Amino acid sequence: MTLTNNEWADGVIFCRGPIEGSMAKVYLDRDMRQPVVGSEYDVSDPASKAAQQWGEGVPGGCTLALGLSRGSSTTLYIAGTGTWPSGACWFQDVESNGRASLAKGPQYMSQVEFTIDKSGEGAVWYDMSSVEGVSGGITMNYTDSSGNAQTDVAVPGRFSGSGLEVVPAPGIGFPTVLSDKNALGPCECQTFSPSSKSCNTDACFAGCPGPLVDNPCGQHRCRAWYAKRYEDPDSYCGWLYAEGAQTYCWAMDEWKCVDADCGYGGKDQPSKDCSSSYPKDAAANTYSCGHGGAMPGPNGTQWWTSGAGCEDKLVGGVPTNPAPPRHGGRIAISFENLPWLHE
């Protein structure tokens, strides 16, 4: 895995595996004799050299802090039998890191997320997430040992209109475009119900926290809210989609509604007011929009027989979350400068 700083400034790339032992077969050298866990770059140890320079990571698992000057790269090596579940990498410039370290997790910026299975036995699952904001561009590709390549790119041009703006990241300082989640403030919902005033707000639909996302109706209302945002090119999601950025703009953005109703309100669909009875153990994700179509409804009925209310999100024919089979090869992640952010 090669990591490159093509951003506007010198900085640090943080990469983590939040699961204990998840990076046990990731190494600093090609001969695979120097494990990253417990190395001088592992900031989960507050006494490490990197933690002293770049900030302390979360305890448990492993978080690497890889300082890179502008235009430079570094390479990690993953054993064929090695895995890296629930991984993530993000970039922070030197100046803002001096104000507030993001070693514990990204804020107000895009990141790469991935899960790497064993070579020959699984896949390289990955996506780029702009759920927090856009402070730079990212490219990521996986090329297997046969030369088959899968590439994701999120390098958007400047937005138009007055719906978005470049602002300093709160308390940190680097320039960013805040996502809807961070622009609209907190959601006060504790337990979702279709009639709850505290749960049915723009802030709740934008952030779509647990009480909404774990409920079919709550997640549906998030999806329907974002369906309208997608129609507005001046909105955050509309801008990224129009720019061809292959990235998540909100938490459940692997699927996109086919229309503003997003699978509710039709004759073979749940009611728009969510008064329909859902089957026992109805999965919140699929029942939020009928992904895949033709699912059991209440009392032996069938919902979405005439079609799903959402479909896999594709940008330039590429899904938001590619999963090519892992067969050796190389992963390349590059954090890219967006000059218009710094004008």
Q: Can you characterise this structure?
A:
This is Cellulase. It comes from Prorocentrum cordatum. The protein contains eight helices and 21 strands. The longest helix is centred in the middle third of the chain and has 15 residues, at 216-230. It has 343 residues and is α+β, with helices and mostly antiparallel strands. 15% of the residues lie in helices and 26% in strands. Strand 16 and strand 17 (302-303) form a beta hairpin. The strands form seven sheets. Strands 5-1-21-11-12 form a five-stranded mixed sheet, with no helix packed on it. A five-stranded antiparallel sheet has the order 4-2-7-8-9. It has helices at residues 49-54, 94-99, 180-183, 202-207, 210-213, 216-230, 236-242, 284-287, and strands at residues 2-6, 11-17, 26-27, 62-68, 73-75, 77-78, 84-93, 111-116, 124-129, 133-134, 137-143, 149-154, 167-168, 175-178, 255-257, 295-296, 302-303, 310-312, 314-315, 318-319, 330-336. The model has no long low-confidence stretch (mean pLDDT 96).
